[in-house]
Amino acid sequence: MQSIKNWLMAFRPKTLTACLVPIIGATALVKAMYLPVDTEVVVYALLASFFIQIGTNLVNDAVDFKKGADTERRLGPQRVTQSGIFTYKQVMAAAGICFLLAVLCGIPLVIKGGTVILVVGILSVLMGYAYTMGPVPLAYFGLGDLFVILFFGLIAVMGVFYLQAHEWTFHSFWLGLQIGFHATVLIAINNLRDADQDRTVNKKTLAVRMGKNFARLEIGFLCFAPFVMNYYWWTVGFKGATLMPLATLPLALLITKNIFQTEPGSVYNKYLGQAALLHLTFGLLLSLGFFLE
């Protein structure tokens, strides 16, 4: 039983909202545009996304320990490789299984969507692995933020929308950008918290490359940009989708205030939870607004 709990901890279930929100949002947009919702696409897309996210988390857990980024001085939540709960090989093997399951779940999506979805699927798996692994690990070169915007925002939303609507639209691009921005708040807070330690192991995140003040400004922009962008939905007639997410504005203000007033430390783990809640609630309220149109 304890082993199951440890694996669940390694999976980082709190991060899985990054997979859930884009798929719900894209499906809600399909419904708002009076197009047929394909439940099979939703199920397989969710499963494939969850497995890619978990696989990425596991590779990150193992590789950060191997490269010295995770030590006993770690400020963030407990990691299973660094803690000695599982070995590097065990965690990497589990990651491999997750990526394989993601590929299997993606087969029905490729059958429905054709070559373009095949390319998206292959890139998603490869980039999940390359986030901390390979000759150019994205997280170690300051590309992690861009990775999240692309794969947990634009590609996720536009891909799921395309699989159901069979077209690429500016609506899905705009929604993907909004969702991607809020998803990236989590990694930006994480990198700001770990900037000093990351610098010692040459992990060149944006917070390391550009400095802590830049990281704070980035977080503020990522928190508030989706609210400003929401005006677009008003101009195209989706009033509910415009107004309902405004209920989460106080949470965005709280996160930004905390980040600007507090030096990086273990308290940032609390702010990560707040950022995850912002991403989830903004996305769900926006989706509910679409569903009610």
Number of DSSP helical runs = 14
CATH class: Mainly Alpha
Order of helix and strand elements from N to C terminus: HHHHHHHHHHHHHH
Whole-number radius of gyration?
19 Å
CATH topology annotation: Farnesyl Diphosphate Synthase
Q: Identify the quaternary structure here.
A: single chain
Structural class: mainly alpha
Query: Which CATH architecture is right?
Result: Orthogonal Bundle
The shape is globular
Could you give the count of β-strands?
0
Q: How confident overall, as mean pLDDT? A: 89
Low-confidence stretches: none
Largest sheet: none
Strand content: under 5%
Span between N and C termini?
A: 45 Å
- Tally of distinct domains: 1
Helix amount? over 70%
Explained architecture:
- This protein is mainly α and 293 residues long.
- The chain has a single domain, classed as Orthogonal Bundle (Farnesyl Diphosphate Synthase).
- Helix content is 74%, strand content 0%.
- Helix 3 runs parallel beside helix 5.
- The termini are far apart.
Gist?
The chain has 293 residues and is an all-alpha fold. It contains 14 helices and no strands.
